[in-house]
Every structure is written in structure tokens, then in C-alpha cells.
Design a protein that fits this description.
Layout (H helix, E strand, L loop, with lengths): L14 E8 L5 H10 L3 E4 L6 H10 L4 E5 L5 H4 L2 H9 L4 E9 L2 H11 L16 H17 L3 E4 L5 H12 L10 E8 L10 E4 L20 H8 L2 H23 L4 E8 L5 H17 L3 E5 L14 E2 L5 E2 L5
Parallel strand pairs: 1-3, 1-4, 2-3, 4-5, 6-8, 6-9, 7-8
Antiparallel strand pairs: 10-11
Length: 327
């Protein structure tokens, strides 16, 4: 590959456009701030009809990296957004990404409670009758078409503001993510804490024998040798990993050919500490070593283990955390 990331075929710098949207409280302002720190020129709440003129003006001023924020409060804007996005996508002089930030209803409610702020849609009601949960559900419905067309969906339910910034920087550091190839991510998690909403494919490994019920293994995680060996010595686990490896080694290149820039595989067990962690690491090793897949393995719930079995506090990418901080 002789073409450098961020350059067009004629050698000129290739523009990069990121549209940032998502649910209120899911971290949109944090994402825009991170993109601004990366050198993007950020415009918030730009009407769809102004997308093309804005990008043309930015190109004239040699502002090659542009991020546009879309807010549900400008309801009239949403109807024309998909058409405007399609127009930008068709422009080969720029790479394009639609970033959607999501979070669970419970997490968003906790964040609004922590900040003591009403939902933004409340201001649209003359009598202010929209409650937080009603606002979240209305907003989720209105933004559903944008989520369905997103290049990248990030579930911020378990992320701190710093972790979200790191994720954004990791994803958009080089501007043209398509020129880097598809970013593949494995995420282990516990179903007891809720399945992540930003995964493209999910595997449930709760059918495997659970090390939690073996007292000598319970304190360890799937990163530790005793649990890792326990999982890998299971013939059922061996068969599952072999067949899943074959499936993913076929599917991942197909998704990349279709232009997908970010692909997340979720692997879940009950608590997200033992079986899912060991399996995610195992699959990651095999796909990297045997098929040359560049991927990152993350463990969302590995630190949630407590003797009382209670989940940790809810983190808030848009300003602090409910209950005092990171998991």
C-alpha cells in the first residue's frame, strides 16, 4: 500500500469528517472535546442543509478535519440529516464516520440524577411535563435511524470521562480510519451488569463450567493461570473456540470489505470475570497468531468482583460519576 493515511490519490491531504450524535448524557460533549484536542474543527448543532456549505468553507480554509455535532433538541434538523450524511459520504475527497454514543436507560437516569439537570426535551413541552425516563425513550426513538446508520457505536454505560476520551482518541487519532483498516475489538462482560449495546456480534459462554463455584478458583480472574487452564482444559470450550475462530476468520474480512471501520465482538458470562475473560483472551490470541487479525481485547467487568456480589457505581462520561468514580 503506497498511499499514506490521510492523503488522496493525487497526493493532496484527504479531508476527514466525523458526525457525532447520540443520547443526551451519553458523552457527546466529551467526544467533541476530544476530537477538538485532536485538531478537528468542531461545529455543534449544524443544520443538515448547512453541512455542504460548511465543509466547502472548511476546505477553502484548509481545515481538513471537521467534526459536526447533532443534538436531538433541534428536532427539525433530524429529518434532513440522513440525506445530508449520504451526500457527504459520496464525496471521495473526505473520509466519513458517523459516531453514535449510547448508554443504558438506567445509566442515563443516574447521570441526570447526579447532575440534577432535567432532560433537554423537557424545554420543548410548554408545561415541562416530560420526565427524565420519558425524555430518554423519546430521544432514543428519534435517533434510532441515525444509530442504525452509524459507522461506530460506543456504549458509554461503564466508561469514565477519561476512558471515553481515550477511546475517541484511539479511534480518530489518524483522521482517516478507513485507510488504517478495520479496528477489531473483543470485549468480555458480565450479563448480570447488562450486555453492552455497542457490540456488532455477541457470544454467550455461560454454558461453560463456572470457576466461580470452585472456592480455590473464585478469587482469580480469567487472566490468571488457574482459571485460564481450567477453561482451556474443557473439551467443550476447546470445540467452541475452534468453531468460533473459524467463523470470525471468515466474517471479519467480509465486514472490512464492506467498508466497516470498527467491529466489536462481545463475549459474556455471568459476572464478566472468569469464563468470558479467559475465552476472549484465548480467541484473541488464536485470531492474531493464525490469521493476522489486529485486535484489542478489553474486559469491561473484570474489576467488579466483590464479596457481596453487588455492582460498582455508575460512571458518567459527561461529568463525574454516580457513587464516586471508576468501577
Amino acid at each position: 500500500m503506497t498511499e499514506h493515511a490521510g492523503e488522496s490519490h493525487d497526493g493532496e491531504a484527504r479531508g476527514s469528517v466525523v458526525v457525532v450524535t447520540g443520547l443526551s448524557g451519553a458523552g457527546r460533549s466529551t467526544a467533541l472535546s476530544a476530537l477538538e484536542d485532536l485538531g478537528f474543527y468542531c461545529v455543534d448543532n449544524l443544520p443538515p442543509s448547512a453541512f455542504a456549505p460548511c465543509l466547502e468553507a472548511c476546505a477553502r480554509d484548509r481545515l481538513q478535519r471537521v467534526a459536526i455535532g447533532i443534538d436531538v433538541r433541534v428536532r427539525a434538523f433530524l429529518d434532513g440529516t440522513l440525506a445530508a450524511i449520504d451526500e457527504v459520504r459520496r464525496d471521495d475527497s473526505r473520509s466519513f464516520q458517523l459516531l453514535f454514543l449510547d448508554a443504558s436507560d438506567a445509566t442515563l437516569q443516574a447521570r441526570f440524577s447526579a447532575t440534577r439537570r432535567p432532560h433537554p426535551l423537557r424545554a420543548q413541552e410548554p408545561d415541562g411535563s416530560i420526565g427524565v425516563l420519558d425524555g430518554i425513550q423519546i430521544e432514543r426513538q428519534r435517533l434510532a435511524p441515525l444509530r442504525a446508520n452509524a459507522s461506530v457505536v460506543i456504549d458509554t454505560s461503564s466508561l469514565t470521562v477519561h476512558e471515553l476520551r481515550h477511546r475517541i482518541i484511539e479511534l480518530f487519532r489518524d483522521g482517516d480510519s478507513k485507510s488504517r483498516g478495520m479496528v477489531t475489538r473483543f470485549v468480555s462482560f458480565g450479563f448480570k451488569y447488562g450486555a453492552p449495546s455497542d457490540v456488532d456480534m455477541m457470544f454467550d459462554v455461560r454454558f461453560l463450567h463456572n470457576p466461580y463455584f470452585i472456592p480455590s478458583l473464585r478469587p482469580f480472574s480469567g487472566l490468571d493461570e488457574p482459571v485460564r487452564d481450567f477453561v482451556r482444559d474443557n473439551p467443550i470450550a476447546q470445540s467452541f473456540v475452534e468453531q468460533t475462530e473459524q467463523l470470525l476468520s471468515f466474517l471479519l474480512p467480509q465486514y472490512q470489505k464492506e467498508g466497516k471501520s470498527y467491529f466489536t465482538v462481545g463475549i459474556g458470562c455471568t459476572g464478566g470475570r472468569h469464563r468470558s475473560v479467559a475465552t476472549a483472551e484465548w480467541l484473541g490470541e488464536r485470531l492474531s497468531a493464525r490469521h493476522g487479525v489486529a485486535l484489542k481485547v478489553e474486559h469491561r467487568d473484570i474489576s467488579r468482583f466483590r464479596s457481596d456480589g453487588e455492582p460498582s457505581s455508575t460512571t458518567n462520561p459527561d461529568g463525574g460519576s454516580e457513587g464516586g468514580g471508576k468501577l
